[in-house]
Amino acid sequence: MKISVKVNGRDYQREVEPRLLLSDFLRDELNMTGTHVGCEHGVCGACTVMVDGDSMRACLCLAVQMDGREVTTVEGLGAPDDLNLLQRKFREHHALQCGFCTPGMLMTATDLLAKNENLTDEELRDGLSGNLCRCTGYEHIVQAVRAAFAARGGAGK
Amino acid sequence: MKPPPFSYAVAESVEHAISLLADADGEGKLIAGGQSLMPMLNFRLLEPELLIDIGRVPELDTVSEANGGLSIGALTRHATLEHSPLVKAYFPVLSFAMTHVAHLAVRNRGTIGGSLSHSDPAAELPMMAMLLDAEISISGPQQQRGVAARDFFLGALDTDLDDTEMVTGITLPALPSGSGWGFEEVSRRAGDFAIAAAAAVLRVEDGVTRDVRLAVTGVDETPLRMSRAEAFLNGKALDEDVLSAAAYLVRSDVNPNTDQQASSDYRRHLVGALVKRVLRSAWLWALEGAR
């Protein structure tokens, strides 16, 4: 089936099998390997991407369902030499160690930042609770996202 | 962990979806958000020949006022229910319950029609449909019909839906004014399915309860309304003795499973504790409202 998807602002047309997952479409068809694949049943959050402005599990979406939609992946945030605010805060606060969960964490936090002016600590932790991290103990990730909210409220953004 | 092969068709309308379902002769499966179906496909628990995508039927994605209550389309996302000002105004207990459904990314994509049709025995939305006396709208090849939530859920992953029918939405009658509410859930981790959950709505008149509704989930094959406890509670002032007696009735009326998360005995104990909490909360809210 032929689909047309906008990914990180660029249009792509591809012929795909109906059963192809969005996560595999991004990684294998578009060579965007920033979206990580963990559990493939919606539990770990590593494959989280934005679809039309909402964070979603790429492993629980079919590529064919993305026809005409707009997808943002971690590659659509900053560039390695030009990190965006959230990515800078992740680096400053040591919010990653092995990096496997990081793309999903960043996309979930992007959703939280886009839809909320500010969040209580409880809301922030609840918002991130769908993304598993086995290295950090979460504390530094929470600090990084909180710092991104704080920076944006001030002179940031 | 990849889905088995299937064909894929996009439904342009409800009628189109139903005719595709009928043509598939039992081998078709509707997909909308896919937040229950996709894991089952990835695990290959299901191997449908045809997936019919109803995610592009715009008239199903609506929340509107109807007959004094709300009419909610099947494609409404859990996140929409959570944040909808109409839902918050009419059924604050429902928007609160939605915060317990899985996680942000799943609530952004999962639909209410999918959750109801899937009928997971520990899911929040089926319990809320029971609590709020939802009527579930169903379209099929011959007719459209409405089924009360309490007649819709037949068992774990089993509903009154026929192979060629689909849920198109629900209507919720407004709660009596001054109703108080409570919702409680216990799960091992935030966002997991409930080990047990309970919800109540009631109002207070002349110092005693009226219109008590009490629903539980995670403790039987389907969510349940606790009719015996409701009848017992109506017309009473809720003190600790009354709450304990209601919890006793609830514990007697459920039939929980043992699984890797919790034993049957623990679930039975837990649901009694949760029922006391939601009733206490609803009672205190309603007392405020009655003033």
User: What is the strand content of chain A?
Assistant: 5-15%
Radius of gyration of chain B: 19 Å
Q: Class by helix and strand content of chain B?
A: alpha+beta
Low confidence ranges of chain A: none
Explained architecture:
- The complex is a heterodimer of chains A (157) and B (291).
- Chain A has five helices and five strands, in the order E-E-H-E-E-E-H-H-H-H.
- By secondary structure, chain A is α+β, with helices and mostly antiparallel strands.
- In chain A, strands 2-1-5-3-4 form a five-stranded mixed sheet, covered by helices on one side.
- In chain A, strand 3 and strand 4 form a beta hairpin.
- With 291 residues, chain B is α+β, with helices and mostly antiparallel strands.
- Chain B has twelve helices and 14 strands.
- The chains are: A alpha+beta (157), B alpha+beta (291).
- Chains A and B meet through strand 4 and helix 3 of A and helix 2 and helix 6 of B.
